[in-house]
Write a structure and sequence with these properties.
108 residues, mainly alpha, Chromosomal Replication Initiator Protein Dnaa, Chain: A, 65% helix, 0% strand, globular
Length: 108
């Protein structure tokens, strides 16, 4: 595994820990694809890509090979919802400001 993918994976693990804790779901649930309404998964993909600029390849690897197009669509949906839903916007802002930093995972 290349250095950039290893760093990307550690960044994603920080996001996964933060999001799963905030949404009260098991980290494994964030990896489940093709389930509409999985807000925690959408939040994790958005935060990994937009807030800590994780490489698409690392996101794809963690989220079971989700396509680059699906990542872009997920990010766009979250951006739109943030613009329209103040509660959702505040929740994601809080998550991006306070990532969980346990273990050896660096803050993205």
């Amino acid at each position: 595994m290349g250095v950039s993918l290893m760093v990307g994976r550690m960044e994603i693990l920080v996001v996964i820990g933060t999001v799963s804790e905030a949404f009260g779901v098991e980290p494994a649930r964030l990896r489940v694809s093709r389930r509409h309404g999985n807000e925690a998964r959408s939040a994790a993909i958005y935060l990994a890509r937009q807030e800590i600029d994780t490489a698409v390849g690392a996101i794809r690897a963690y989220f079971s090979g989700v396509s680059a197009a699906a990542i872009s669509k997920a990010v766009a949906r979250v951006k739109t919802r943030r613009a329209e839903d103040r509660v959702w916007d505040l929740r994601l802002a809080e998550l991006s400001e306070h990532p969980r930093t346990s273990g050896n995972c660096p803050k993205g």
